[in-house]
Amino acid sequence: MEEFDYVVLGGGSGGCTVAGRLSEDDARSVLLLEAGGDGTSWVVKVPMAAAISVPTAINNWALQTVPQRGLDGRRGYQPRGRGLGGSSAINAMVYTRGHATDYDDWAAAGADGWAFADVLPYFKRAENNEQFELLDPAFHGQGGPLNVAALRTDNPFHGYFADAVREAGLPWNADFNGAVQDGLGAYQVTQKGGERCSAARGYIHPHLGKRRNLAVVCRARGRRILFDGRRAVGVEYERDGRVHVARARHEVILSAGALHTPQILMLSGVGDPAELRRTGIALVHELPGVGRNLQDHPDFVFSFESATTDLVGLSLRGAGRLLREISRFRTQRRGMLTTNYAELGGFLRTRPDLTRPDIQLHFTVAIVDDHARALFRTFRLPHGFSLHMCLLRPRSRGRVTLASADPRAAPLIDPDFLGDPRDVDDMVAGFRLARRLLDAPALARRTTRDLHTAGISSDEEIRAVLRQRVDTIYHPVGTCRMGTDPDAVVDPQLRVHGIEGLRIVDASVMPTLVGGNTNAPTIMIGEKAADLIRGA
Question: Could you tell me the CA-to-CA distances from 126 to 29, 245, 397, 425, 428 in Å, in that order?
Fold first, then answer.
């Protein structure tokens, strides 16, 4: 048994951020527990190596959904990072924050203190933006742990994409995190010197061995929260086949992510009494909202073959190109190996009456079929590109439940993709808008084959292919929703309702999805949480 002021369970983006910030105070002892490795391998550092982690169980929980009624009964794939940095160690490194009104909506729904004006300082505090001099300083920061940079791939498709945007009559945007989100352009990425800058690299790795008050234990799988009455007093975890206990003098901070945080709460006896009875877990505290309100961005992928080796693929010509690119990466930290795949994209409105963008595009410099798992089945990857089109504010709501009382069993995940028919209608409109960009001459003349959408034109044909191919773009949130109503799980200070000494700091607390990638918002939550805890 060990005792610390704070025990943080989960070393993902939220957990690394809050542990790093709390340990800045020498008077506070912090233990960070992570189920995976230390997040320092080359598979993490080399951006292009995400193609190894995302489709496999390397640094990845590699979960799946239950059969989805809106997707013709298919099971979806749910890659989630396993290792220090969490999903920031396997993601596409896209730095976006969502729309300002997303946070204003949170505040209006009961999350007092989480309006955009409240959270913007935390985004800025986290950020070290290498392009700061080119951006509006009202929206960006320098000196923070999270390095944000321009891509270093030097891929000519950036120019072709810009030409296509102009030809399609769509707006251009040089900064999706500035005053205006609308438009297409190149994404900024969480990289430093051409390498991935995960939350662990920003907030934890620089301090290991230097801060004596910060302890990090990897390969420590959380089993449950320990309680003394209604107060959280520690964490039970498994490591090397043995069960250990870490006690918290002040607070336990649960940061296991939107899929595992509700699972751990339920394993600990906190949740819907009926759900706990079903799995034989004794009730500690009734909180029916645990695991509910699961939201994720449903994503459709267009894929096209191309003849150029500027795009990732497997061929004799491509092998020669790759060898040159490896040498370039080793000497310059530039070129193809620095790709985040989703190099370009942006935010568009499918109707002029909308007050904010409702779809997001990610243009990837490779064919991404079934989350790149097709490559490992066929060992065939033609050169080509993909365009992801995701719905930013789906109406469908799912849930996370327990498969059993076994802490090692994966949770049951039901995003209910396209469960609300209005989501299908919105994605049909998004499909047509995306095709407008894809049909622009600058892209159309660089394709040799449309792999999935050739000849599809009617609404019914689009609906059918959506149900055949939609899946996650890796943004699950909301399963321990913040608010003050009876179904909320945490209050605006991120304290679990009805429990003392327990906070949640990860994407599960988001009341609703933000209109963009969720990594930067999760780091923002960690930054704000540290202030809330220090001020308690």
Answer: 22, 32, 30, 37, 37
